């Protein structure tokens, strides 16, 4: 794996993001809108009688952590889509760049994007609502680690699907993370979900983070075993996502699908 | 030793044979023209040489190495440009060359970029977004990118297709000059038979995924009773079987 090759993928995204206001919409605008809507709603619910449990903290916490998933997945997927939109795959993969280096380049880009986006969101949450993300104390780091690995895995699945299906799969790339929030109980406990959905929820690493966050807010601690289950699941998802992206790349080569990315379809 | 050796290369998509057991080689410093009608299998052959399409069977070796086991080492020493593979339009010309220079081992990147801009008369467009350039100018940027790493083997898929005759002539001269000074080999596809006759040392006519004819572009038409390369091309496209029998 050559650092120069990875740097090339990251450099392109840095140049594009540095000068394009449009690209900042996804990174800053939507997370800020989410924060304003949910932050204000949670204050209203709190005042209307939600004081018995700290609805404000858990809703804002959910918004930030959900955005963390969303922005990380999009950090991978949107950087990949840039190459779809500019029909760049033939140029990239006729060079010594490998699919492994390309994937690492997407992950590094995602780290920059999510770091900036969530950093600004946390500052805004503090300025607007005096919400401190460090209210989760020690648990913040494992929460973020689990969500990061899981989001990268979702990003890899999005890339793999688009490689196989072609540019028409773009809508799917945008919508995949939307299903994570309701399934993993980002805004409510898993126990209120219908029975069969609860089983799906327990198979998602993010569920253990959102449940953990509520546990920390309610009692100040969380069962470490559940954190380990979440972490183990996220590693499994990441391994599957990595396998899928390599498998999809191989399928592209076998079926000659790169030419599909040279057309407008 | 051949720079590029293609042996019994085949690509099947279901029952369709896009490339049907092609074999050929390219010697050091040689320019070989890959000719054939649309759908003959030229681009699929080039894609297999570049590793963009996996062959169903057959072997590609370059610089004495098997592509399957030495992909990165091989691609490090070659490059590619095509009319259908423009560089990203949302980066300017210098940025594109900068980004792509990092995909290759280049000793002095800055100088390589300056040289590439100068060689293809792109200095005045260096700060212009590539997507804002004309099709011909974008093709020049693509060829400039293809020479960044001083490749020993250059694959050019219709490199002058979108250029006006004057610019096309300039580009041909610069590519021939590059071959002369570096000793590089070039595999060149084109539908411009005058261009092919002018630049290629040898041509391969492909039809229905097979190599039908091979030889010196200046002597080949007479051998098959044709006036010129264009007439021979039309025969290959319309009556491949007749020529196959004649061969």
From TrEMBL, chain A:
**Residues of the ABC-2 type transporter transmembrane domain:** 15-216
Name the domain of life this protein comes from: Bacteria
What molecular function does GO assign, one term? ABC-type transporter activity
Please tell me where this protein is predominantly located: membrane
Q: Which Pfam families match?
A: ABC2_membrane
Localization per record: Membrane
The protein depicted here goes by the name ABC-2 type transporter transmembrane domain-containing protein
Its source organism is Candidatus Yanofskybacteria bacterium RIFCSPLOWO2_01_FULL_49_25
User: What taxonomic ancestry is recorded?
Assistant: Bacteria, Candidatus Yanofskyibacteriota
TrEMBL record, chain B:
Task: List, for all copies, the residue spans of the domain called ABC transporter.
Answer: 4-233
Arranged from A to Z, the UniProt key words for this protein are: ATP-binding, Nucleotide-binding, Transport
Q: Does the keyword Nucleotide-binding apply?
A: yes
Note the SUPFAM superfamilies from the entry. P-loop containing nucleoside triphosphate hydrolases
What Gene Ontology molecular-function terms does this entry list?
Answer: ATP binding; ATP hydrolysis activity
**Record bears the keyword Transport:** yes
Q: Which InterPro entries match?
A: AAA+_ATPase, ABC_transporter-like_ATP-bd, ABC_transporter-like_CS, ABC_transporter_ATP-binding, P-loop_NTPase
* Top-level lineage group: Bacteria
Pfam families per the record?
Answer: ABC_tran
Annotated CDD domains: ABC_DR_subfamily_A (cd03230)
**Family membership noted in the UniProt record:** Belongs to the ABC transporter superfamily.
Record PANTHER family: ABC TRANSPORTER ATP-BINDING PROTEIN (PTHR42711), ABC TRANSPORTER ATP-BINDING PROTEIN NATA (PTHR42711:SF5)
* Name listed for the protein in its UniProt record: ABC transporter ATP-binding protein
Instruction: Please report the organism this UniProt entry assigns to the protein.
Output: Candidatus Yanofskybacteria bacterium RIFCSPLOWO2_01_FULL_49_25
């Amino acid at each position: 794996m050559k650092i120069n090759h990875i740097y090339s993928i990251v450099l392109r995204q840095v140049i594009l993001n540095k000068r394009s206001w449009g690209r900042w919409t996804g990174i800053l605008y939507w997370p800020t809108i989410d924060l304003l809507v949910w932050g204000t709603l949670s204050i209203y619910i709190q005042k209307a009688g939600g004081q018995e449990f700290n609805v404000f903290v858990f809703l804002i916490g959910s918004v930030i952590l959900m955005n963390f998933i969303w922005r990380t997945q999009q950090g991978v997927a949107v950087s990949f889509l840039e190459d779809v939109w500019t029909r760049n795959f033939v140029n990239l993969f006729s060079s010594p760049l490998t699919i492994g280096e390309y994937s690492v380049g997407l992950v590094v880009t995602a780290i920059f994007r999510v770091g900036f986006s969530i950093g600004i969101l946390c500052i805004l949450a503090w300025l607007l609502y005096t919400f401190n993300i460090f209210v989760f104390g020690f648990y913040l780091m494992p929460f973020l680690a689990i969500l990061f690995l899981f989001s990268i895995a979702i990003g890899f699945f999005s890339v793999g699907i688009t490689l196989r299906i072609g540019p028409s799969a773009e809508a799917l790339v945008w919508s995949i993370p939307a299903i994570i929030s309701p399934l993993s109980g980002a805004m409510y406990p898993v126990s209120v979900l219908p029975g069969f959905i609860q089983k799906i929820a327990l198979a998602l690493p993010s569920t253990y983070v959102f449940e953990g966050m509520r546990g920390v807010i309610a009692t100040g601690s969380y069962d470490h075993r559940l954190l380990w289950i979440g972490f183990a699941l996220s590693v499994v998802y990441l391994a599957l996502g990595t396998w899928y992206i390599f498998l999809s790349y191989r399928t592209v080569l076998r079926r000659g699908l790169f030419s599909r990315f040279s057309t407008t379809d | 030793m051949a720079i590029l050796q293609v042996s019994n290369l085949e690509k099947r998509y279901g029952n369709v044979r896009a490339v049907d057991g092609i074999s050929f080689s390219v010697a050091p410093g040689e320019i070989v023209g890959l000719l054939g009608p649309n759908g003959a299998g030229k681009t699929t052959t080039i894609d297999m040489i570049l590793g963009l399409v996996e062959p169903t069977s057959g072997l590609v070796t370059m610089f004495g190495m098997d592509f399957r086991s030495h992909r990165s080492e091989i691609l490090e020493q070659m490059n590619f440009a095509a009319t259908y593979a423009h560089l990203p339009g949302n980066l300017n010309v210098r940025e594109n060359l900068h980004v792509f220079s990092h995909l290759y081992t280049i000793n002095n990147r800055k100088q390589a970029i300056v040289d590439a801009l100068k060689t293809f008369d792109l200095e005045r467009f260096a700060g212009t977004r590539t997507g804002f350039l004309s099709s011909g100018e974008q093709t020049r940027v693509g060829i400039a990118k293809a020479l960044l790493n001083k490749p020993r083997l250059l694959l050019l898929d219709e490199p002058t297709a979108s250029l006006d005759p004057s610019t096309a002539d300039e580009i041909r001269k610069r590519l021939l000059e590059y071959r002369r000074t570096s000793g590089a080999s070039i595999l060149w596809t084109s539908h411009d038979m005058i261009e092919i006759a002018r630049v290629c040392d040898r041509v391969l006519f492909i039809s229905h995924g097979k190599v039908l004819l091979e030889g010196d572009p200046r002597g080949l038409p007479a051998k098959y009773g044709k006036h010129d390369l264009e007439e021979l091309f039309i025969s290959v496209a319309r009556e491949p079987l007749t020529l196959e029998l004649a061969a």
